[in-house]
Amino acid sequence: MTKNESVKKKGFHKNNKHIGRYNLKKLIASTPELGEYIVKNPRGEDTIDFGNTKAVLVLNKALLKFHYNIIEWDIPTGFLAPPIPGRADYIHYIADLFPKKKHIKALDIGTGANCIYPLIGTKVYKWNFIASDIDPISVENAKKIVQNNNLEGKINIKLQEDKNSFFKGIIDDEYVDFTMCNPPFHSSIEEALGANKKKRESLNKTRTSKLEEKLNFGGQKAELWCKGGEILFLKKMIKESILFADRVGYFTSLISKSENIKPLKKLINKLGATEVRVIDMYQGNKISRILIWKFN
């Protein structure tokens, strides 16, 4: 895909259920607890206090219940509460790779305690998922979510016991149509805290009430940072992916830092990939990128 072929329209994927403002009345009717976290924005309109981690958690519960019929969903204190609309976008862009195929099996690498991608992919497209993570607490919670929503036949949660592997020990002899991953962005806890401070200061410029120092900073070590950061994480994944070329259709991953795209594409091409592309996802002022490659 050339640069001119990347997504130009600023906004969510056309199939995303979260285009436009949240319908708070319907969400509150579905999840009454959400009503406790409604605040007024500077224009006097009802909104959610996104600096309040509890408010974000309850909003996620409401969105999952109302739009995806996920009745039971929760995460342990301190774990990442992902923004549902952006996560759904990744799923929809991957679906574009399979316009006619109905029976899809996917692998979510680093599913976390929230298990968001498999939940949305299963509910919207009826895909089957393997979901892996290196953290036993995340695996335990993800299994609980799957069981509470009677999705054991659709989502298989696995503990990755080798922290240096992505596909080994997870993909057996089965064929996987695609893999997906939202890698740790940062190379250290200091970098992660610094990025959070910068984000908080930016948000505070337009807020009537200031975000506190540690608000809105959910996420354990493996979710937010790893040694070498995103670039090293993905280089390791790419090098291992060639060993599974005959068992995986498309390998995909989110890329948070645009400067990482060029060296990663160079590595993929060096390993003999038959296809490499980058999809830009526009979500307001934020741009996320999906790196996609395949060998066969």
Highlighted features:
296 residues; disordered N terminus; alpha/beta; single chain; 9 helices; two-stranded antiparallel sheet; Rossmann fold
Task: Explain this structure.
- With 296 residues, this protein is of the alpha/beta class.
- Helix content is 34%, strand content 18%.
- The protein has helices spanning 24-30, 53-68, 84-95, 116-125, 136-148, 189-204, 221-224, 229-241, 261-270, and strands spanning 38-40, 46-48, 105-109, 128-133, 155-159, 176-181, 248-255, 275-283, 286-294.
Fold topology:
Elements: H1 24-30, E1 38-40, E2 46-48, H2 53-68, H3 84-95, E3 105-109, H4 116-125, E4 128-133, H5 136-148, E5 155-159, E6 176-181, H6 189-204, H7 221-224, H8 229-241, E7 248-255, H9 261-270, E8 275-283, E9 286-294
Parallel strand pairs: 3-4, 3-6, 4-5, 6-7
Antiparallel strand pairs: 1-2, 7-9, 8-9
Helix pairs in contact: 1-2, 3-4
Short structural summary:
Helices cover 34% and strands 18% of the residues.
- The CATH class is Alpha Beta
Report the CATH topology name: Rossmann fold
- Mean pLDDT comes to 86
The strand line-up of the biggest sheet is 5-4-3-6-7-9-8
